[in-house]
Design a protein that fits this description.
4 helices, SH3 type barrels, 154 residues, alpha+beta
């Protein structure tokens, strides 16, 4: 009985997904399981060093011609999760404010350029890009995500 119920739910999910015409480009996104232990460990690293991001944002955050501050966080639409980037401009009382800067493939409740507020505890990764030096600080998940993407394409 359980088996048939699971099959029914899977078929129903497929039918709903097909009706929504979700276009997902796996060449541009890296697929992660919700409980991906390696990615979660990288989130812990980002959280460990987040004060560096906050301190730099306070000093250089207004100079968007020389520095770019971005945060990766989990965006949720029902049962769908996507880990995406936002440009960050301010930090106050445990909250980052900025604009969504990524392309959502499956999540439909966020659009590029939308205002976002992200809790400090929800930061999964962060980066500071120094334009003049063409240097990135942070981006702890880059190597892992690139290796996963290569495996997914093979």
């Amino acid at each position: 009985m359980k088996k048939w119920l699971l099959i029914y739910i899977a078929l129903l999910t497929c039918l709903i997904a097909c009706k929504q015409k979700v276009s997902f480009d796996s060449n541009k996104a890296t697929l992660l399981k919700k409980d991906d232990s390696a990615f979660l460990a990288l989130k812990d690293t980002a959280q460990l060093y987040i004060q560096t991001f906050i301190d730099s944002l306070k000093v250089y955050g207004r100079d968007t011609t020389k520095f770019h501050f971005q945060i990766k966080s989990d965006y949720v639409d029902g049962d769908i999760h996507e880990h995406m980037w936002s440009n960050i401009y301010t930090y106050k009382n445990g909250l980052f404010d900025g604009l969504f800067a990524d392309t959502a493939f499956q999540v439909r409740n966020i659009k590029n350029g939308a205002k976002v507020t992200i809790k400090k505890s929800n930061v999964e990764d962060w980066l500071i890009y120094n334009v003049a030096k063409d240097q990135t600080i942070g981006y702890f998940s880059e190597e892992y995500l690139m290796s996963k993407k290569k495996r997914q394409q093979n």
